[in-house]
Amino acid sequence: MSIIVDHVTKSFSERNRRRQSKLVLKDVCFEVPDGEFVSLLGPSGCGKSTTLTIIAGFQGRDSGDVIVNGRTVTRPGPDRAFVFQDYALLPWMKVGENITYPMKMQRVPKEEREKRLDELLSLAQLQECRDQYINELSGGMKQRVALLRAIACDPEVLLMDEPLGAVDFQMRKLLQLQLESILMQKKVTTLMVTHDVDEAVYLSDRVIVMGRDHGNILADVAIELDRPRDRTSEKYHGYCDQLTELLKTALSGEVFTKEDEDIMNFIKNAEIESRRHC
Ligand SMILES: Nc1ncnc2c1ncn2[C@@H]1O[C@H](COP(=O)(O)OP(=O)(O)OP(=O)(O)O)[C@@H](O)[C@H]1O
Ligand SMILES: [Mg+2]
Predict the structure, then answer these.
(1) Residue 231 in contact with residue 278, Cβ under 8 Å?
(2) Which H or E run includes 150?
(3) What number does the ligand 1 atom closest to the CA of 210 have?
(4) What is the pLDDT of residues 60-69, one digit of tens each?
(5) Where are the domains of the chain?
(6) CATH fold for the domain made of 3-79+155-277
(7) What is the per-residue pLDDT across 215-269, written as a single tens digit (0 to 9) for each?
(8) Residue owning the nearest CA to atom 4 of ligand 1
(9) pLDDT at 156
(10) Fewer CB atoms < 10 Å away: N or C end of the chain?
């Protein structure tokens, strides 16, 4: 299953200025070939989530096409699973029920749902949590449950909006490992939005850098490294440096929001770290 984003333009009408609209995406074009893992990196507000939700079919576009596996996207569908940044889990249901919910909606027989649930829980080492409620879980566990729910129905396309954004550094590294092993086994076509350069290099086959000028694509970088990736290799650092420079260009030295501040801090720390190694 491939994703083709073909000259997509999207504007939103401004609340207090009835006649004016804000152009967010203009002629955005890129492709995610079958089975590839692509990350979308860029400053806050450049249109990453908007792009992802248009591909998911949650919202329309003004012009241009989104084609998933040869079909034009007009609405959400079970072929495309979405992982939200804030998990979007159902708090009144237990972990197992949350994961099997999409299968239930698709009328998968109970016996098959239970079998699949066992497989998924063991994949993410969450067997013990099957009967716990969502509010009894840590952030990292919730993140894993959200991911399992998304892949429960074997989607052909996985769309993730900063899926690891809300967990701490250690947990993030652990989840990156798990995410990699889950997705490499399944070879799902994946598009992930992230702010984290290292995460993008670690997980992706390609990284697309989006700029502030109506979602203009600043670069499309193929990450040609063997898996599992060696974070200590020179080539790995080379990719991180290249993407960091591109992000700096995208930010143009200005800091607008908390997320941009995080990116700038990340860049500063990376520079200090690399000077220390010189
Ligand atoms: N429903 C909406 N109505 C009006 N404006 C919107 C709407 N959704 C998004 N926008 C605007 O579109 C622009 C792009 O938003 P989007 O959420 O796609 O950015 P983003 O790149 O995902 O940012 P972040 O990294 O902070 O999540 C922003 O200026 C935002 O205010
Ligand atoms: Mg966003």
Answers:
(1) no
(2) helix 139-151
(3) 21
(4) 999 999 999 9
(5) 3-79+155-277
(6) Rossmann fold (3.40.50)
(7) 999 999 999 999 989 999 999 999 999 999 898 888 775 555 666 667 667 766 7
(8) 12
(9) 85
(10) C
